[in-house]
Write a structure and sequence with these properties.
Number of helices: 3
Structural class: alpha+beta
Distance between the termini: 22 Å
Strand content: 25-35%
Order of helices and strands: HEEEEEEEHH
Strand order of the largest sheet: 1-2-3-6-7
Mean pLDDT: 93
Number of domains: 1
Number of strands: 7
């Protein structure tokens, strides 16, 4: 397993929709293991394949910082099949340098996916897990949390990022609040 390079906004790969996985095999399982190691090293609570430049529809998520690996999810071809309620959550992203914002999401979701051992799974989630699932599945659809905030906030962030890059202050590391 190797650590993978997390792509940073405005890398165009982050705007690319992932394609469904057609074959769950050993290579995919090794890739998922590398994604998990990359997520933990970042550190984050979720990582989508598009964030590491891969076009497959897979994500890894672990919202339990106290017990890494205990509640780890490796999801293949995940889709949200039900949404309910709404919640505002302060989100950051491993692909968005030094920025967080409140994002409105569904409070509860049901996600249907496949596991690495080729079993279908229906997962009901709320709170942080629901937010993380929606955030990561957005990545698979070519969206960032920046696409869910106002245009003014998004434009201000773009200008600030451009200035940070020009001044050499954009080290490519997400802010400490970027957990998703």
């Amino acid at each position: 397993m190797a650590l993978l390079r997390i792509r940073k906004f405005p890398d165009p790969i982050l705007k690319t929709a992932a394609k469904p996985v057609e074959n769950i095999d050993g290579e995919l399982n090794l890739f998922l293991d590398s994604m998990v190691q990359t997520m933990y090293a970042a550190p984050g609570v979720g990582l989508a394949a598009t964030q590491v430049g891969d076009g497959r529809r897979v994500v890894v998520i672990d919202t339990d910082h106290e017990n890494p690996g205990k509640h780890l999810l490796k999801l293949i071809n995940p889709e949200i099949v039900e949404r309910d309620g709404s919640i505002l959550w302060e989100e950051g992203c491993l692909s968005v340098i030094d920025y967080t914002a409140e994002v409105k999401r569904a409070a509860r979701v049901r996600v249907r996916a496949w596991t690495p051992d080729q079993k279908p799974i229906d997962l009901d989630a709320d709170d942080l897990l629901a937010v993380a699932l929606q955030h990561e599945l957005d990545h698979l659809d070519g969206k960032l949390f920046l696409d869910r905030i106002s245009r003014i906030k998004r434009d201000l962030y773009r200008r600030r990022l451009t200035k940070m890059i020009k001044e050499g202050k954009a080290d490519g590391k997400p802010s400490s609040a970027a957990l998703i």
